[in-house]
Amino acid sequence: MASLSASPPKCMLHIPTTHDYLLHDLCLVPRNLSLMKQGSLRELRFVRSSNQTEPLIDSTDKLSDIPLLSCSEAMERLKQKRENQKGKQQFLAMYSSIFGGIVTDAGAMVIPMDDHMVHRGHGVFDTAAIMNGYLYELEQHIARIIRSASMAKIVLPYDHETIRRILVQTVSASKCTKGSLRYWISAGPGDFQLSPSGCHQPALYAIVIEDQSLFDSRGVKVVTSSVPIKHPLFATMKSVNYLPNVLSKMEAEEKGAYAAIWLDEDGFVAEGPNMNVAFVTKEKELLMPSFDKILSGCTAKRVLTLAEGLVRDGKLHGIRVDNVSVEEGKRADEMMLIGSGVLVRPVVQWDEQVIGNGEEGPITLTLLNFILEDMKSGPSSVRVPVPY
Ligand SMILES: Cc1ncc(COP(=O)(O)O)c(C=O)c1O
Known about the structure:
Number of strands: 15
InterPro entries: Aminotrans_IV, Aminotransferase-like, BCAT-like_C, BCAT-like_N, Class-IV_PLP-Dep_Aminotrnsfr
CATH class of the largest domain: Alpha Beta
Number of helices: 11
CATH superfamily of the largest domain: Aminotransferase class 4, branched-chain amino acid transferase, N-terminal domain
Low-confidence stretches: 1-50
Radius of gyration: 23 Å
Order of helices and strands: HHEEHEEHHEEEHHEEEHHEHEEEHE
CATH topology of the largest domain: D-amino Acid Aminotransferase, Chain A, domain 1
Cofactor: pyridoxal 5'-phosphate
Bound molecules: pyridoxal-5'-phosphate
Keywords: Pyridoxal phosphate
Organism: Durio zibethinus
CATH architecture of the largest domain: 2-Layer Sandwich
Structural class: alpha+beta
Strand content: 15-25%
Helix content: 25-40%
Number of domains: 2
Protein name: D-amino-acid transaminase, chloroplastic-like
């Protein structure tokens, strides 16, 4: 049975609790479950998504077979489900301002149904990589989530300094030295209205995901996305509304590609579903689409800085952030995807067009090495040590 206490663990005592929720308020059992007993829910249907082979609910279940669970029973079932469904990623620790502490039991890594982020998408998020016990570009990612929160009109639950302290401590509690830290700021729980006016207090959630895999430098194929790009207002903030991004990624996978590339409303190259793009032109210029209508990628910005070394060495003739036409992109010598998840990934084909000579570009691979080196031994401005 999951043993959970509403009071924060000792190591967390100095982290403020913004909510006085008791854990049983987080119980996932709908409050009106008794309606089911009264027979308002007559029949359950199969629930099956495209990549699921087994239905989630057996339609032959009789209503009386659906148990009414206590909070601890629900938590125990969540824990069991997690243990039975271990995927490639391990979730090592979660912080929630709702219970004002960190949990390491994946079954307890839940967020309230009435959080405005869950039912209205009123939340923002960000991710920072963990490498050899350091958080890479944490400051830059915190600055971006704060910008995103402001664009989404969400008041910060804590100041910048406290957010950083909570995030670092969550990674510390997880003991994870390689993986990623993902965190959300939401309008918080309250009710199921469209307006957030009933939300008591904004919330902060963070999760540590272990990932021991090595970064892949093999060239990938991309396609042009037919899923419409987000309006610049939404594309420039990292909100949880990633349905277009998910559909775009699915479209790529259906076409045997790694990612689908968005073009902006004027037909210029924009970005991928969770990465920026860049090119090395025939004139040996590093060319990147400007950030005014897309997400300002922390990795892409770091690449721009690190690439200055290649200009000094004469390997690049210049660096340009500008509008990029599809035609210019497709005839480039090199194309790359850039982001916290992929770091720098060579692209060898875009739609039917082979990029350069069809092999991973040398400048792209050098930039990947620069980022990897930066993650391992870069300056303190990009590496925050985690005290384990
Ligand atoms: C839409 C989009 N563009 C670009 C990026 C790359 O940003 P970063 O390098 O900060 O991870 C991401 C990252 O998730 C993204 O979601």
